[in-house]
């Protein structure tokens, strides 16, 4: 990585300077030009891993403002059957509207009897889709929080929409992102495993969601960071100026 970086003329970064200025200052020549969002593009675009189920947007329209828990773990994360069942029961315990993205390969094989029973019980307040138009979902006024794996794209999208996080990292940089979300930016809470260190229980999920939704400080911090992100990509903002400078360098 370091070898190839020395060969680059430019190092563009999908972030913005105000989000982590000390880290930016440590990397010579880095050019933060983010957050880069699909919603900022003109015309059609590619970028969805799976066909998006837009019926969730009309479902969100019917929910109260700030009431829905959005649950999505990206395109890679998988669960054991036991952990998946705990998540399922945790969402049921909270008795609050939720939108859950469940890929067909999220576990080895769904327990159809358990899954069908769950879907029947939550039909009045839960919506399950295989893939969602995430930026539009996070921007929807009915969304209360984002239960996320903390992948960088999801992290930036949540920040840009001012949504508080409930963090469930899966691998790699997601654990680092979770630390920033919870400890540095203070826009979310993390889920802790049980005493055996590997299972996140239904009661932990329920308790943390309730705690997050009642924390006005986290909500305020999330909205402040949203405004900073927005300013960075508007005329005169740090990422706007960086991108404009990059274009000028290419011209010359």
Automatic annotation (TrEMBL):
Alphabetical list of InterPro entries matching this protein: UDP_glucos_trans (IPR002213)
Gene: UGT83A1_0
Protein name as catalogued: Udp-glycosyltransferase 83a1
CDD domains: GT1_Gtf-like
Superkingdom of this protein's organism: Eukaryota
KW Transferase (keyword) present: yes
GO molecular function, one term: UDP-glycosyltransferase activity
The keyword Transferase is assigned to this record: yes
Pfam family, one: UDPGT
Swiss-Prot/TrEMBL keywords: Transferase
């Amino acid at each position: 990585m370091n070898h190839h970086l020395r060969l680059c003329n430019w190092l563009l970064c999908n972030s913005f300077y105000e989000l982590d200025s000390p880290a930016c200052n440590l990397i010579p020549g880095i050019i933060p030009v983010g957050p880069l969002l699909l919603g900022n593009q003109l015309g059609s675009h590619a970028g969805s891993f799976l066909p998006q189920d837009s019926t969730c947007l009309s479902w969100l329209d019917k929910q109260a403002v700030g009431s829905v828990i959005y649950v999505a773990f990206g395109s890679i994360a998988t669960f054991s059957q036991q952990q998946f069942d705990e998540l399922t029961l945790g969402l049921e315990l909270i008795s609050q509207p939720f939108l859950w993205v469940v890929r067909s390969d999220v576990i080895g094989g769904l327990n159809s009897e358990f899954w069908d029973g769950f879907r029947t019980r939550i039909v009045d307040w839960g919506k399950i889709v295989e893939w969602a138009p995430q930026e539009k979902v996070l921007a929807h006024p009915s969304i209360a929080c984002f239960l996320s794996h903390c992948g960088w794209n999801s992290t930036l999208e949540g920040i840009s929409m001012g949504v508080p996080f409930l963090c469930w990292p899966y691998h790699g940089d997601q654990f680092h992102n979770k630390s920033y979300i919870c400890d540095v930016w203070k826009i979310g809470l993390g889920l802790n495993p049980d005493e055996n260190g590997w299972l996140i229980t239904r009661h932990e999920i329920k308790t943390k969601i309730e705690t997050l939704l009642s924390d006005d400080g986290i909500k305020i911090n999330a909205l402040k960071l949203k405004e900073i992100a927005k300013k960075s990509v508007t005329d005169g903002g740090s990422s706007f100026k960086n991108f404009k400078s990059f274009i000028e360098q290419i011209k010359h």
